[in-house]
Amino acid sequence: MTTTDPSATAPPQNRGKRRVGDVVFANTARGSGILILAILAGVAAFLIIQSSDSLAANTANFFTTESWEANTRENPAFGVAALAFGTVLAATIALVIATPVAIGIALFIVYYAPRRIAAVLGYMVDLLAAIPSVVYGLWGIGYLVFELQGFYDGLNTYLGWIPLFAGPVSTTGRTMLSAGIVLAVMILPIITAMSRDVFKQVPQGHQEAALAMGATRWEMIRMAVLPFGRPGVIGGAMLGLGRALGETMAVAMILSPALVISPFLLQSGNQTIAAHIALQYPEATGYGVSALIAAGLVLFAITLVVNMGARFVVARRKEFS
Amino acid sequence: MAKRIDVSGLHVYYGDFLAVEDVSMTIEPRSVTAFIGSSGCGKSTFLRTLNRMHEVTPNARVDGKVMLDDMDIYGADVDPVEVRREVGMVFQKANPFPTMSIYDNVIAGAKLNNKRMGKSAADDLVERSLRGANLWEEVKDRLGKPGAGLSGGQQQRLCIARATAVEPSVLLMDEPCSALDPISTLAIEDLIHKLKEEYTIVIVTHNMQQAARVSDRTAFFNLAGTGKPGRLIEMGETNKIFTKPDEQETENYITGRFG
Amino acid sequence: MTTTTRPQSTGSAGDGPQAQRSIRGGSLPRYAPPAVLAVSALVASGALFALGSFHLVTAGLITAALYAVVVGAASATVENSRKAKDRLVTAVVYICFGTAMLPLVSLLATVVLEGITRLDGYFLTVSMNGVTPSMDAGGVYHAIVGTVAITGLAALISIPIGLFTAIYLVEYGRGRLAKAITFFVDVMTGIPSIVAGLFVVALWMALFGPGETNGAAGAVALSVLMIPVVVRSSEEMLRLVPQELREASYALGVPKWLTIVKVVLPTAVAGLTTGIMLALARVIGETAPLVLTAGSSAVAINWNLFNGQMMSLPVFIYSQVRMGGAVNMERAWAAALTLIAIVMLLFLAARLISRLFAPKLGR
Q: Could you tell me which of B217, C15, C51, C330 has the fewest CB atoms within 10 Å of its CB?
C-alpha cells in the first residue's frame, strides 16, 4: 500500500472509501495466511491433546514396545517400535528403487528423448501422480502381487543367502517388498519432476563447455548436469521419502501385517504407522483411538523432519543459482 | 599441432530455414582469423559448424565440406566428440563449471581421455595450461577454490586454459571479450597473440578495433536482407580489409555506413 | 548376431591409436543398435517360449538387459571405453523410462479391463442400500454423491483460504509473517493424509464428543490437504502476472484491492482455475482421511454433510477390497474405473483450460 499513493491524485471524499476497501481486502488476505498457520498449529495441538490420555495410561514404553494392546480401558500397553521400523523400511525400499529410475527418467526427458515428444513423455510420467493411491492399492492387491510371485521365487532361489530375501517366500505376495514396489511407483513422479526441473535449469553454457572439450553426452551429463542438479535431486528424493512415509492405502491394502520387526522382505509381516491407523481405527475402542492418534503424532513428526530437510536442501540450491 | 581448415560450399540450415549460405574459405594455421559483421549475420552460427557444436541446437544441420588438414570433419565415420577434441571452443560468456575448483576445471577435459593421469602429470598440465593462459600467477595460491569466484576476465582465461588443456589444434572463440571490461579484454588479446604460436585461432567479434588489433586475416559476413541467409562477403589480410576492401559492402560496414 | 560385423567396421575405420591423433575412431555402423535390439528381442522371446513361460514384461526386461550388455561390449571392442559407457548409459536411461511406463500402462489396462465388466448405467445409478456384500447387485451412486458433496465442501473451504493466502503472499506479504507462511505451507504439503484425518478426529472429539462421523468432517480433513496445493499453484500463477500491468492500473488511480480484483485475478484466471482443478483431482482420490472421518460403512444415499456417515468412491473401493469376495473385487474395479475417469477428466480439463485461456504474456 505504500508503493502507490492514490490519495495524491484522488479527491478527498473518496479517500476514506478506498481505504476501507483496501484495508478489508488486505486484512482478509492476511487473515487467510494466519489461518493456515493456525490450522497447522491446530493439527499439532489437537494430536498432542487427544493422544495424551492414552500415553498417560500406557503401561508399556511407547517407543520401544512392538505390540499394540490399546483397545481397552484397563492397563493399555502399546508402542510404535515395530510400526516405526516398518514405516521407515517401506519408505526406504521405495526410495532405493525409485530414485535411480527417476534420475534416469529425468535425464531421458531432458537430454535423450526426441525433443518433439519429450513434453508428452513428461506428461505421461505426471499421470502417474494423478492416479489415486487407493487405485494403486487395488492394482497392487488385485494384479501386481500375483505377477510378482514368480519374481520373488527367483529372487529367493538366487539371492536367498542375503537375509533380506530369505525364505520361506510368502505365497500371497502380500509382502513388504510388494508394498515398497508400489510405493516406489507412487513417488517416482515426485522425484522425477524435481530432477527434471533442475536438469532443465543447467546453464546451456556449461553443457556446451563440456561438449566443446570433447565430452560424450554421458560425460557432459556427469561433468555439467549431475553436480549442478544434485541438490535438486536430493530434495526431490526427500520429498518422495516424505510421501512414502505417510502413504496409507497402498500399504494397508497390500501388506499382510504383523507387529514385528522383521528384515525379511519376501515374507509377510511388518506394518507401517499409516496403514496401522487406517486398519485399526474402525475397530478401536477404549484407549484405541487416542493411542492411534499418538502413533499419528509420531508419523507427523517423522514426515515433518524429512520434509523440512528437503525444503532446506532445495532452498539452499536456489541461493546458489 | 596447428591445423589448416578448408571450408567449401557450406550451407547451414535451421529446419527449412537457410541461415548461412555457401561459405568457402581457408583458415591458415598459426594465425588469427577474425569474423566480423553485424548481429545475426551468421558468423557465430558458422563458427559453431567448425567443431560441430551447432549439432547441440535442435534441427540445425549443414551441407558442405569442412576439411581439417586432410580430414573431413563431416565424414561418415567421424565422431563429433573427437572433432571437438581437435577443435576447442571458448564462449561469449565465461562458463567455468561452478561445482569444480579451478584445478578441476582445467583438467576436466584432459581427464576424459586419460583417467589414470598421475598426480604430478596433472599438476604439470594445470600449471602449463594456466601459464599458457596468463593466469598462473594470479591463481596459483588458490587452485582449490571454485572457479566461479574469479573475476570475469580471469574466468574467461580459465576457460581458455581449460580448452587448451585438451591440446586441440584449433581454438574457436565466440566473442570472448564482449562481456569484459577493457583491461580484461586487453589481457585476453595479449593471450591470443601468444596462443597463435601454437594454435589456429578463429575469433568472432563485434568490435572492429579488436579484429584489427588481433587478427591476421579477417572475414566479413553480411545478410543479403532481412529473412535472407548470411553470406561471406569478403575475406583477406586484415590490413587490406580495413584499408581498401574489394567490396563496397565491406567498406560501408568498416566505415560505419550501412547500405 | 550383429557383433559379427565387428571386424569389417574395425578394418575400415579404426587404425588404432597413433602418435598423430585422429578424429576418426572405430565406430559401430549406424544400423548396429537397432539390429542388436531386434536380435535381443528375438533371443529373449525365443528362450522364454522354449522354457514355456513367455511373459511380455519378462521378455522386455531380458531384451533390454541383453541389448545393454551386447551394445556395451561391442562398443567397448570396436570403439573405445568412453563411447561404450556412453552407449551403456543411453540404454540404461531408455530402460528407466520404459520401466516407468510399465506400471502406468499395466495399471490403466488392468483397471479398464477389470472395471468395464461391471461398469454400466445400473452400477452408476444405484446405491448399496439393502445389498449384502456378496450379493450380485448394488452400485456406487451413494459413493458418487458422497464424493461430490465432500469434495465440493472441501473446495468451498479451501479455495477462498488458499487464494487469499496466495494473494497475501504475492501482493502484500513482506517480512517474517510472509516467510513463515511460505515455509509452513511447504510443511503442510507434506502432511500425510492419514494425519490430516486424525487431526479432524481429534478436533471432532473435542467439539462433538467421540465417535461423531459425518461428511463435513471429511471435507475439513480434505481441506487441510487441499489448501497448501491451492496456495502453491495460485501463488505461482499470480507471480506470472507482469508488474507493469499493476503499475499501469495504479497510474490510473485505481486502488490496490481493485487492481487485484479487476486486473491481476482476471489475467491469471486460467492458471488459477487449472491449479484448483489439479488440487481437486488430487484430493478427490484421498481415502485414508475419509475412512477416519466420514466413515467406511455407509450404504445408502446421504446428501446431508452434517448427519451420518457418508460413502465416497475411494473409500468404497477400499471397503470392497477389505471384504475380499469375487463380487466385491468386481465392484472395486468398476469403482476404480469410475474414479480414474473422473480424475482424468479433471486433469484433461485443467490442461485444456490452461492451454485455451492462457493470456498471451509473451515469453
A: C51
